[in-house]
Predict the 3D structure of the following.
Amino acid sequence: MIGFLRNIFGPSADFNQLVNEKGAVIIDVRTSQEFNSGHIKGAMNIPLQSIDQHIEKIKKYNKPIITCCRSGARSSAAASQLKGKGIEAYNGGSWNSLNNVIR
């Protein structure tokens, strides 16, 4: 599974290192209802459609951001939006897969 993620996201996206060494913030961009049905411990829920409203708050974290969702599509869009605003952001893909990678 880790090899699969690295093939998709590239070798620079070591999510475990980003979280444990750099204090990355995980943002789950699913709806509140989806988030409440299960999520990564400590993840923040900001649905994709409202991510632009939270840009300044996210910038204040001054940490890498890892986005996740159900399948990786919404998290990819969110990571692109954040990168476009000058934020170090990575698409973590599916929250289930990301949860299995982070130790």
